[in-house]
Amino acid sequence: MTAAAMQPKGPQAPRPNADQVREILIVDDHPLMCDALALTLKISFGLRNVRTARSLAAAVEQIRDQGEPDAVILDLNLPDARGAEGLVTLRRQLPDVPITMISADLETAMISAAMAAGAQGYISKSLSREALVDSLRRMWDGEFVTPEGYQPDQANAEDEARAELARRFATLTPQQMRILRLICQGKANKEISYELSIAEATVKTHITAIMSKINARRRTQAVLLANTIRLFEAN
């Protein structure tokens, strides 16, 4: 499968073009996929350094310790993050770095959610080497790239609303994101308290902050908003 361009919305912060990308971070928990992708990119782009991380937590720590890469390739489903959660979390750390979502899941709703959450592009794991390299080059040159045949399932106004919602979720702290994930799993405050080893009063304080940041009045509404951008689940 090849990839089709999507027109960028609004002004973009200055970014290096494809020829200036020298260091990338691949976040993928499949060692063979990760190693093959790293080798392909080193050869195709002459990269000086390809960093890898096997989980979202490892990626966050690595960025904190080693600094920002020039670009990121992010697997949709990781051991500690599913759906748009990884993208929302990394976008908070890397506001101006192009992040490419890669997955075998080409469902329209998931692609739309990823693009709304700030992905520079969304590509299939089944792409040929030539198509993969071409798609990444276009993204690193500033294009928004999505799979061929992808058509957003809603009007632009709906996409903008999802993008704004993703920005609100990006303001959550890591602990608040963990608590929200447990809320979406149907956990009560007492269960969240036990699972995270924090006081129930602390859980309540975090939930109040979460509701304020995402503009939700009830837990059910918070879950609905998270599902709107496919924050935790790919399916």
UniProtKB/TrEMBL annotation:
Q: Which CDD domains match?
A: LuxR_C_like, REC_NarL-like
User: Which is a GO BP term held by this UniProt record?
Assistant: regulation of DNA-templated transcription
Instruction: Print the keywords alphabetically.
Output: DNA-binding, Phosphoprotein
> Is Transmembrane helix among the key words of this record?
no
Top-rank taxon, per record:
Bacteria
- Residue ranges of domain HTH luxR-type in the record: 165-230
- This chain's source organism reads Paracoccus homiensis
What protein name applies here? DNA-binding response regulator, NarL/FixJ family, contains REC and HTH domains
List the GO molecular function terms. Answer: DNA binding
Report the InterPro entries cross-referenced here: CheY-like_superfamily, EvgA-like, NreC/VraR/RcsB-like_REC, Sig_transdc_resp-reg_C-effctor, Sig_transdc_resp-reg_receiver, Tscrpt_reg_LuxR_C
Recorded hits in SMART domains, A to Z, give: HTH_LUXR, REC
Q: Pfam family example for this protein?
A: GerE
| Residues where 4-aspartylphosphate is found | D75
All copies of the Response regulatory domain together span 23-140
Ubl conjugation among keywords: no
